[in-house]
Amino acid sequence: MPTPKLRSEHWFSGDDAGKFIHRSWMKNQGIPGHHFEGKPVIGICNTWSELTPCNAHFRELAESVRHGVLEAGGFPVEFPVCSLGEALLRPTAMLFRNLAAMDVEEMIRGNPLDGVVLLAGCDKTTPSTLMGAASVDLPTIVVSGGPMLNGKYQGRDIGSGTDLWKFREDRRAGILSREDFFVAEACMSRSRGHCNTMGTASTMACMVEALGLTVAGGAAIPAADSRRKVLAHMSGMRIVDMVNEDMRLSKVLTRQAIENAISVNAAIGGSTNFVVHMLAIAGRIGVELELDDFDRIGSTLPLLVNLMPAGKYLMEDFYYAGGLPVVIDELKAHLHMDALTVTGRTVAENIEGTECYNRDVIRSIDKPLIENAGLTVLRGNLCEQGAIIKPSAATPELMQHRGRAVVFETIEAYRDTIDNDDLDIDESCVMVLKGVGPKGYPGMAEVGNMGLPPKLLKKGVRDMVRISDGRMSGTAFGTVVLHVAPESTIGGTLALVENGDFIELDVAGRRLHLDVPDDELQRRRENWTPPEPHTERGYVSLYVDHVMQADKGADFDFLVGKSSADVKRESH
């Protein structure tokens, strides 16, 4: 029997009992019979949840996608998947990214779908849906949810996350009242959408556009802007054409596309979380990618986008200035402009006629905000498998620093002691936090940008060198070394750091060094005891047993490498 043109025909085409069951039960929703006759079935993969505020408007977006699919002659079917919200989910949404990716992968593979539209917004919903889709490799397009409108507080713009960290420090320093602190929280989040700074959600939206996986120009459209719905509608139309063209995800998500995304991430001042997610996505689609590639490709590129946390504007301003197409145009000498995108056109063709409308928001490449601003990969005896730092968010004077370590063995130890006036710490010290990596937290939480001691904040100190095996929010800033691998929980050198040790940071030299003799480190290693496991049951136990280190994307070892869309057996 010849292979059907459409994958969904394996479910719907024929007159046996199995096909009867598939069609009949779908018809109880009022679906007419002609929908099953050769129309591409398009899955609308929806990460909507009221517990994920960034994605709470996705039911409306899904309807816009549906209209586009119908207009183009497709058969739209919406389905829910695990939704991960940064605002509420404990202990960290990152713990469940791989779970959500497994959900997406199995729901796409196990159902009669010919193509997929991924609705994603909040930080982990974009990489998780893309990881799952990459493992199946059907025609796929991404519709991001869009950022919130600019926050407005006391006559000025404020950005989600970035200003939160500033308010936190001012509150701890005693210069912001409790009443004003509460007023600010409503002013910051005044519309639907994800973070309006260049945090992780905005970074992920820019990532998928730079990868060529969205309709061009869509990353920065505010969630409240009607053009976000137009984008969703056009994406619904385009996915039907992609199915007819057999434009599978692997035809777009190539090494060239990933290199483009790394370069763009440098120019926009994107989140450090980009690294761990891009590594995982590459691993799923089968593209070779290493931690050092991020440094080699992106570290010498300039920062062009003047957005918080590295600059002063917000995503709404970025959109009005021309959005990501302007950045791509400025970077064209550094990009693979012939890379194919889901529009069916190349990167170069997608940005024809691009104009910049505000050069203070998006700088030209010959007049950047910061030179050599991309993420930097560090090596040394404190991070044998690597660590990262975001120079554009750091204090220049601290980029080369030697200081005495003040060690917090756990996040609880940090919280219990950081406010103590008798804590032996000054601004020259290096704050070290252990036990917050993939296995250690578990889930590699966004706690790396530790708040500074109030006694130093009151003196006007606003940055110190901080080191951990965890992550930090893309909205955060500071001279923060992250993703230290191997992590402390599995016996990485970070586990051996003691109070009073001296640590050397040399960003220009790509070096992070613990100034302790090898024989002393060996003695400490022999006396080191691993921490007790968090649990011996359920998903968390599976996670701890199989999660890889940060330099490998913190994916599960058994999920690396794509599978296929094949399903070997019938259900009836």
What this model shows, in words?
- This protein is α/β, with parallel strands linked by helices and about 575 residues long.
- Helices cover about 35% and strands about 10% of the residues.
- The protein has 20 helices and 14 strands.
- It is globular.
- The model has no long low-confidence stretch (mean pLDDT about 95).
Task: Summarize it.
By secondary structure, the protein is of the alpha/beta class. The protein contains 20 helices and 14 strands. The protein has 3 domains: 271 residues, Response regulator (Rossmann fold); 36 residues, no CATH class; 169 residues, Glucose Oxidase, domain 1, CATH 3.50.30.80.
Number of separate helices = 20
Q: Which CATH class of the largest domain?
A: Alpha Beta
Q: Predict the CATH topology of the largest domain.
A: Rossmann fold
- Helix-strand makeup class: alpha/beta
From the spread of the alpha carbons, the general shape counts as globular
Strand order of the largest sheet: 7-8-12-11-10-9-13-14
Radius of gyration: 24 Å
Look at the structure and name the CATH superfamily of the largest domain.
Response regulator
As for the number of domains, it is 3
How are the SSEs placed, and which strands pair?
Layout: H1 9-12, H2 17-27, E1 41-46, H3 58-71, E2 75-80, H4 97-110, E3 115-120, H5 125-136, E4 140-144, E5 151-153, E6 156-158, H6 162-173, H7 178-188, H8 200-210, H9 226-244, H10 249-252, H11 255-268, H12 273-285, H13 291-298, H14 315-321, H15 324-330, H16 347-350, E7 376-378, E8 386-389, E9 400-408, H17 411-417, E10 430-433, H18 454-457, E11 465-468, E12 480-485, E13 502-506, E14 511-514, H19 518-527, H20 538-546
Parallel strand pairs: 1-2, 1-3, 3-4, 9-10, 10-11, 11-12
Antiparallel strand pairs: 5-6, 7-8, 8-12, 9-13, 13-14
